[in-house]
Amino acid sequence: MDMTLLPALVAFAFVTSVTPGPNNLMLMASGANFGLRRTLPHMLGVALGFVVMAALVGLGLVQVFAALPWLFTLLKIGCVLYLLLLAWKIANAAAPEGGAGAGRPMTFLQAAAFQWVNPKAWAMALTAVTVYAPGQTVAAVLTVAAVFGAVNLPSVGSWAWLGVQMRRVLTSPARLRAFNLTMAALLVASLYPLLGSPAM
Fold this sequence. Notes:
Blueprint: H1 6-18, H2 22-67, H3 70-91, H4 108-114, H5 119-132, H6 138-166, H7 173-189, H8 192-195
């Protein structure tokens, strides 16, 4: 990788990691509903899951999608359906004190697997690999993945922390319900760029 691209790559990783998207909206909702400690596996799954995804995309999957563009259509359908399911779960999440019916935070493996149906993660990985790892050499791809690994965790963690701070005002079931409905609506709204474009 051309090291002159490194500052631009770091900036790209930060901006794309810290701006709103499905991961960050779900982490904020999790922080508000379950607290930072119980959200930590979710945070780690997002960060490390994306590192693995970016590496695999750069080491071969980008060529697969170039050769079989119809896979994008299947991928988009899967993304939409899964995000709608997650939005429904967030909208109907119960407070942690709600007993047996209370929801549970996303696990490490669930969060890591979610990257594969997250449209923003696909856009980030494909753009990072094609722009900052020209030729997709192993060293360049691993550098891109490593930069995202260093930048992504504190970026997404800030959203979970913001959710924890929101707990101070979400002191009644009605407020928590309104917050969860808002997060669910924003998650559905995050699908707009995916539905409005022919490709990821």
